[in-house]
Amino acid sequence: MPCSFQISSFSALQLPDGKNPRMDFLDSSFFKADGSGRSLPTPSEIQALSGKDWGRPQPPPVRFEELGLLVKFGPYVTTAEAQCLWAIRRVLGDKVPVPEVYGWRIDGGRVFIYMQLVRGETLADRWKTLGTTDRSAVCDQLRRMIASLRQVQQDPEDQFIGSIDRGHLLDKVFEGEPPGGPFTSVKHFNDWFSRLPWLRFPNPEKIQDPWREFLPDVGTIKLTHGDLHRGNVIVSSEDPPRVLAIVDWAHCGWYPDYWEYCKAAYTCAYNGEWRNKWIPKILTPRPEVHEIFAEYTRALGAV
User: Where is this region: Disordered (predicted)?
Assistant: First the structure.
């Protein structure tokens, strides 16, 4: 049964158990459809349908058009992403549209997330065909959605920076680095983040970091998508365009309040119109922090 959430307080303890190798959300629309006693496709069936893509580090999802089902899987997929989808729909409902999650499987070291197939187009594909009025309308929708996401608060007795299930951070920026988190404060996170570029050098503890003092230790912890770009926004094919879903929550977690803007700016061209004109309509710009963030990501080779 779904847990009862309050916007003012959300605890990782309310999440379904991410270590459970088999999870079916029987209250989801997939299992209620037609009263047919549906079952989710097995990992073996997914493997057969994925064919030569099976062995890729990030294989494309398998689609079941007739079932309205999409299965995301691979060695880097985590149950934390499924937990995030599950929680957001229960906390925020339609305020932040995400694919409905139907369940997951852990099999052979891979995680399979079974979710709603959202039919539409990516904002990246539609963007060039949209006029200024429609572009502004879409960005206004996204602004309201992200504002709602950022209103979700942690349990005051259990505040941390980490993945949604209180695990280590899953952002791609940290790929190849020692796992980090959860952290008890913004300062502790910044201390860890700021040391990462120097770990590859001899005696890293003796290296004086030139940027650390510019990372803000005073701030709040926010629920963060972490990969907010046009390819992860699904919009309607008909006009006027409506945001149908924000997808790909693989990097989602609790982060310092500056992280969402920095990551959104990180995913696009420095001098591009999307970054300089449209992202500021969605997120409060933090250019002074992003300059320092960019120094760290370049030093990490995460570009």
Answer: 36-57
